Batch of 2 targets.
Target 1
Amino acid sequence: MPERTEAETNMGQSEVLFERARQVIPGGVNSPVRAFGSVGLVPRFIARAQGDRIVDTDGREYIDFIGSWGPMILGHAHPAVLESVEKAARDGLSFGAATEREVEMAELICSMVKDLDMVRMVNSGTEAVMSAVRAARGFTGRSKLIKFSGCYHGHSDAMLVKAGSGVLTQGIPGSAGVPDGCSKDTLTANYNDLDSVSNLFEANPGEIAAVIVEPVGANMGVVLPEEGFLEGLRTLCTEHGSLLIFDEVITGFRLAPGGAQEYYGITADLVTYGKIIGGGMPVGAYGGRKEIMEMVAPAGPVYQAGTLSGNPVAMAAGLAQLKLLRDTDGFYETLNRTGNAFFEELDAILTQEGVPHCLNHIGSLGCVFFTGETVRDYETANTSNTTRFADYFVHMLDRGIYLAPSQFEAMFLSSAHTEEDLERTLDAARDYFRKDYRGDD
Ligand code: KE4
């Protein structure tokens, strides 16, 4: 029996909770990526978090590089966000009626994103994408959709075709329970391969409602758009009368106040948001120019609804977070500079220790692939040595560094990550790669 690592030994309360959870929750978790399946460990059950730290139910503290998969760009339990939530909650949790905070939220988002006329609040990124696709189909009168292998756009039926994130982590092409009728109109192209997109347009003339893309792939690990890729999608969609949908559930309000649209200087026809705009509460949104968004009920014939959409407490969290991002001088310059420096240093360690790797990063998002290939799409992402990744993950967890428990996710930095904690993380990585690759003890 191989010796158990500290991570395997220190399971304690998480193991007890996981055993209980598996009796009453499928797989013991409410989202597959939390299950630690691909790294072969009992998932850590988290008790609380503050800043860049999370604490598990055994009282063990970690430097957190998941940040709830993106929302915690200011770090956990930011006082201004908590205060805003507490204040809103005292006035009631939900009314099922219009509130001022929803108007303020829509105005704030539209003021931060150039050319965005209108948004509709929903409760998750999945809902945002599902609704944006429906609006695109309603606006164009067309049915077909192009997505990219390895991109993940939530779990609505039409999106579970060669998807990323947990689908890719589990190595499954899609999902059971999705009838052909729901996915036959979803065509898949290759990321960073404009020919694969134009071929689909040529083969389906006048039938493509939209192209949906993660402007930075962050669900097959991090994969950056190559020069001309996003511009090419913009041109193809315009030429063919199709809508370009930027799924900015991760990149929105992370790369820049205006997200990837601002960062790359490209205007999509529809954009989806989630994560950061909720400040940690369940929020999603989709938006675009007025002529498209006024297709959405009750203004137009595209139906979409939600009991808790625009929930006042969730709006309070999102408003507090977005206002801090907008009003903090140099926030994005500082965060992106810190992120670039951190990932460049990690890259240098891997290179210095002679580790075959590809480290893709942009601002506060990054990912290490254990492959000698340049990772530029789903196929090359899949050349990564996931066994090596799992070993690296366990080592880092033992050293109190909480990475995403899957090769096909991203590391998320926040403004709460201290220089000291980033240095500690680099030291842990240096030890691993030196020990593991050089045999040093
Ligand atoms: P949610 O429905 O999970 O709020 O958002 C779906 C979604 C849509 N679009 C993009 C680009 C996304 O990254 C996501 C969700 N991201 C994953 C992490 N890779 C959520 C984590 C999870 O599934 O638990």
Target 2
Amino acid sequence: MTFITPKAKHGDASDGNLGGRLSRLDGPAKITGSATYAAEHQIDGLVYAVTVQSTIAAGVVTSVDASAAEASPGVLLVLTPDNIMPLKSATTWAGTPGPEGPFLALPRIVSFNGQHIAAVVAETLEQATAAAALIRVTYEEKAHVYGLDDPKAGEGVPIDRMTMSRGDAVKALAEAPVRIEQEYRTPREYNVAIEPHGIIARWEADSLTLWEPSQWIDGMARSYAEWFDIPFENVRMISPYIGGGFGSKALSLPHGAVAAIAARMLGKPVKLVVTRPQTFTAYGGRPATRQTLALGATREGKLLSIVQHGVNETSMLGVAVEPLGSVTAIMYAVPNFSSRQNIIPLNTVTPGALRAPGENPSAFGIESAIDELAYEVGIDPLQIRLLNYAEEDPQAKIPWSTRRLREAFAAGAEAFGWSKRSPAPRSMREGKQLIGWGVAAGTYPVRRTPGEALVRILADGTAEVASSSIDMGQGTYTILAQTAAEVLGIPVEQVRVKLGDSALPRAPVAGGSQLANLMTGAVHKAAHAARDELIGLALNHPGSPFLDQQTNTLTIADGVISTPRSEQPSISIADFMRVIGQEKVEALRDTLPEDKKNTQDRYNNFTTMMAMKPPTEGGYSLHSWCAHFVEVRVDEDFGTVRVSRMVSALDSGRLYNPKLAESQWRGGIIMGIGQALLEEGVVDPRYARVINNNLGDYLVATNADIPDLQVISVGIPDHHASVLGGKAVGELPIVGVAPAIANAVFHATGKRIRDLPITLDKLL
Ligand code: MCN
Ligand code: MOS
């Protein structure tokens, strides 16, 4: 793979400073196996839980015969809806009251196939697994709705907060000289993190310790506190290393409740790890979506109107909304726009978040439709995007803070060689291989939620950064160490970052691609405060060598304090701390300025997952942008599609660590290739059961599917977006990949595929 990155634009940042290409500090621990994941913690007296899932999709559990399981060797406890301890309800991620607690553990009402019905706890995992197979559940079965195509699915429920409009879209569409109207579909998709969800729960009196992978330590710990009606401080959640989450590890889940209940009832620590098949029903991935998009335009390709109606599936119990209008509303300068969305309850687990929820399928719709319009009016797909370029946010009608999408198109087109494209479909080939070139754009908002960090300078001259935020592979450990090292003026190896523990200062969710901006901001502030305090001591402490120097400031570099103008006197931080007899100098700071923080108390500051307001700041609209250029090769006889080349240019503002940001971008693009060509949860209509619930049948992209991926940064520092000038990185790159591939497939074959994934049966 090749990478192109402009030189760091912020002075001569060494690799250890912000902007440097430092390798991941957690890398060696992961490579050598010393990084401990949740289920690997060695806890004395551990016993093992295994859950039993429903085999019907809708109905009532009439009885659970646990007698054989209870008599099975090593079994300590069988949990059923009859004996499970009831829980209180917990606040949802949106800060509203949640469903009843017992529903979250082992309910009697069955609302999807694969729902937890019972659990066995035994001395060993093997004993628990064997006993779980002996449990006999009888049901009174009811009719189920298996998916969006089920005739019983109906129209669903309108979600009013998703309704958007400007101008008169219906009228403008009717009057438009050119109209395109199509339906675009995405299937149920799964997170497929390499580390399956698992938990160890241990009670000591009324205190609960949980080792569980978590994208949101504070939010998840709060759920357990509310379920068990104990103070937040009594819950300790520990999650130093996480084997990927992609949105699926941000909320507490029913199996976590089961483990904690079992541990409480038995008075023993309990480990519960879901199996790979159970990861398809223990929590939901991206819901299936459908959207109709109607575009009205002039004969020259200028957009006049967009009318959109979207639906996504949800469960019978929960409200999951995959916002399909998010990219549609802002990507192009179209005066008339209307969008509305319904959710359709089905017998499925409640869908969750998967990398760029909303933006991802939204872009599949609009970025496919604009491509269809380009062919309809006979102009180049890149040209039509520039022709309709939005110079300001067309929905909020305010300026962008920065929008380097034009630069992304230019840089991507240049590196890809777009100008050599032959316009007609099926006009490029190599033997039996039809070659297609496609382009699509993407965007992701910049979100802002408060988060705290503590920075501590220690007596030995090293420093500590502490926050309950997490690193699931994005690079949080590394960029926070770089932030502190730069401000404190000490080498990055001398900074220890502590994350993933609810006992540390409060942090927001590692979701919505917000953590890097928020936590570098908090660490930057805290490190400045700690540094100022250290310098204050050096200027004023009676034992300080600087006391009678005629200076009102000092510098710190390479761990040495000195006067700005001369090298003398100078003293290392460690020596200075010893001279003045100080143990530590520390400061705790929050990301957002005081006036931007929500005014509720400290606890409530962290109860919602993300700031739910539109991403505007000081009258600016805040977003990251990207453009993907794809070459596909489609075998004319077999209909197989391979992505043979890809260039993506991305605007994430300032990059804190270009090496890690590029890795994030490549990871997102790889997931996008999998989404476009491979991923699809297949549901058997007879049982509403996901039948490809394993990695042999639910295909994700592997190395052999991935070509040379060139990523180009076109961002510039954006200080409206964040304290240090960065914008969102993590979810941006997946947005627009699937439509770019679909557009390339159309160019290669003349066939427009409007429902993902693009498999050979649809091309033959
Ligand atoms: N970064 C940077 N410059 C910036 C912003 C970010 O260099 N201006 C780099 C940093 O290395 C940072 C990383 O990009 O650690 C991601 O930053 P950010 O965009 O703020 O995203 P978060 O830290 O909030 O991470 C969450 C995001 C989401 S929402 C999903 S989903 C996702 C993703 O990150 N899941 C991931 N990337 C993932 N990467 C891995 N390996 N595993 C997952 O589960
Ligand atoms: Mo990411 S899907 O917002 O965790």
